[in-house]
Specification:
- It is a single chain.
- The protein is an alpha/beta fold.
- The protein is built from six helices and five strands; from the N terminus they run E-E-E-H-E-H-E-H-H-H-H.
- The chain has a single domain, classed as Nucleotidyltransferase, domain 5 (2-Layer Sandwich), CATH 3.30.420.
- It has helices at residues 49-59, 81-94, 108-118, 123-126, 129-152, 163-166; strands at 14-21, 25-31, 38-45, 61-69, 100-104.
- It has a five-stranded mixed sheet, with helices on both faces.
- The longest helix is centred in the last third of the chain and has 24 residues, at 129-152.
- The termini are far apart.
- 25% of the residues are buried.
């Protein structure tokens, strides 16, 4: 007879948390365990975000926080950066062992609205600011992951076509 053991232990996989901080609401996004995809997770009231993150970190291993940082078009911190700076101090105090990376959050709300339209979300649902905040957090996190994963791999080298194959290779004609 065969005996089957059911594994009830699932290892905690590393996650990166994306945060779009605002005075009233905070959009939260999370990476997949491989750090390839960002998914919108939740929108939390600003006053409750540290408690929310602590609860999340009890169940998932958080390896980094990526926080959207508001800057003007000239790259200087915007007025909203003061609120984010206060939050960053709270975050560092609550999670001193987890690194925090700041990511430019310019245009994330615009991109979030575009993603909702492209995804077929109804106009009524697009007015829900909670959706915009958590999608913005996912855009911030995805931007960070795309940038860091691209730097982890050297650029691809051009492929040389062997001379015996060159007559068989067709190229699109430019118009």
């Amino acid at each position: 007879m065969f005996s089957r053991k059911i594994c009830t232990f699932a290892p905690r996989m590393d996650r990166i948390i994306g945060i779009d901080y605002g005075r009233k609401r905070v959009g939260v996004a999370v990476s997949d365990p491989l750090g390839i995809f960002a998914s919108a997770l939740e929108t939390v009231q600003s006053a409750k975000i540290i408690d929310y993150l602590k609860k999340y970190a009890e169940n998932e291993k958080v390896m980094r926080f990526v926080v959207g940082y508001p800057v003007n078009m000239d790259g200087a911190p915007s007025e909203a950066a003061k609120d984010v700076d206060i939050f960053l101090k709270q975050l560092s105090k609550a999670f001193p062992e987890i690194p925090v990376t700041l990511e430019d959050e310019r245009f994330t709300s615009v991109l979030a609205h575009r993603a909702m339209i492209d995804g077929g979300m109804k106009a009524k649902d697009r007015r829900d600011k909670d959706s915009v905040d958590k999608i913005s957090a996912a855009i911030i996190l995805q931007g960070y992951m795309d940038r860091t994963s691209a730097s982890a791999f050297p650029p691809a080298m051009p492929l040389d076509v062997p001379s015996s194959m060159s007559s068989k290779v067709t190229r699109k004609k430019r118009r």
